[in-house]
Amino acid sequence: MTIQQTARHDADRLSELSAEFAGWRVGRGGSGQWWAVRGNDLVRTPDVEELRVRLREIASSARPAADA
What we know:
68 residues
């Protein structure tokens, strides 16, 4: 994969994550770490899919119970 293809792929992933997780700032650092930050919450991981899973876990734990 060329550098341009890699950059486009990363940009597509960033757009997807930003759309899926409104309120979070999402990026990829020079060290290759994917990150997301919202307020005082910070999530970092080397794998973009792991980042997605962890953000979903945070989102589901923040939702109030429907039967409460």
